[in-house]
């Protein structure tokens, strides 16, 4: 759908719970149309789990996030949060992954993108021993996860993390994060 504008005008939208386990089915061409209708340009989607890369002025990007969240939530009959990151935010997430420096297998790495920055007290209340051998590191509005036994077996679930941090979250595996950054910058 065309090349993206300048990287400073490029955003990544991450929808929680889309096309996961056969629930909340949303064709990606429909998702792209929702962003286009909200004033975004050069909309591209990535895989079937609710990822969109688009160009827009910052004010339009924020309005698009709200508009798309409302439209998708109404369609699904349940709250579907949309987490928005600029391309600079996503580049920082990739650059700052603490588990890459430890030579961890990238297939075990995931990132939780939080809607809001949790308070320091809430972040400190996460239990580091909740799910051995799983590890996590909080940085701003992201939680980096190293899950040697996979996302399906961890006790660091989205429900636990959202409850303790008091914000919504959506998770992506490391390959998806890197591919979204490549789409946003390429």
Beta-strand segment tally = 8
Averaging pLDDT over every residue, what do you get?
A: 92
Unreliable runs, pLDDT <50, ≥5 residues?
Answer: 1-5
The string of secondary-structure elements, in order, is: EHEEHEHEHEEHEH
Q: Which structural class should the secondary elements be placed in?
A: alpha+beta
Radius of gyration: 16 Å
Which helices and strands appear, and what pairs or packs with what?
Layout: E1 10-15, H1 28-37, E2 41-46, E3 51-55, H2 58-76, E4 82-86, H3 87-95, E5 109-114, H4 120-124, E6 135-139, E7 142-146, H5 158-165, E8 169-173, H6 174-185
Q: What are the salient characteristics of this protein?
A:
23% strand, globular, 4-stranded antiparallel sheet, alpha+beta, single chain
Characterization of the model:
This protein is α+β, with helices and mostly antiparallel strands. The chain is built from 6 helices and 8 strands; from the N terminus they run E-H-E-E-H-E-H-E-H-E-E-H-E-H. The strands form 2 sheets. The chain has a 4-stranded antiparallel beta sheet, sandwiched between helices. Strand 2 (41-46) and strand 3 form a beta hairpin. The chain starts with 9 loop residues before the first strand and ends with a helix. The model is unreliable at 1-5 (pLDDT under 50).
């Amino acid at each position: 759908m065309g090349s993206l504008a300048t990287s400073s005008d490029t955003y990544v939208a991450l929808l929680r719970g889309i096309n996961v386990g056969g629930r909340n089915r949303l064709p990606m061409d429909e998702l792209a149309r929702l962003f286009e209708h909200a004033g975004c340009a050069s909309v591209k989607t990535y895989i079937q789990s609710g990822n969109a890369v688009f160009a827009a002025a910052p004010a339009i990007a924020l309005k698009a996030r709200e508009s798309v969240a409302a439209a998708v939530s109404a369609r699904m009959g349940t709250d579907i949060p949309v987490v928005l990151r600029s391309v600079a935010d996503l580049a920082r997430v990739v650059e700052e992954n603490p588990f890459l420096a430890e030579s961890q297998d990238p297939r075990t790495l995931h990132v939780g993108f939080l809607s809001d920055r949790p308070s320091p007290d809430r972040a400190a209340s996460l239990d580091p021993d909740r799910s051995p051998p799983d590890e996590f590191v909080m940085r701003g509005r992201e939680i980096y996860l190293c899950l040697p036994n996979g996302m399906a077996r961890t006790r660091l679930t989205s429900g636990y993390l959202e409850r303790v941090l008091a914000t919504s979250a959506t998770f992506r595996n490391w390959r998806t994060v890197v591919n979204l950054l490549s789409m946003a910058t390429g």
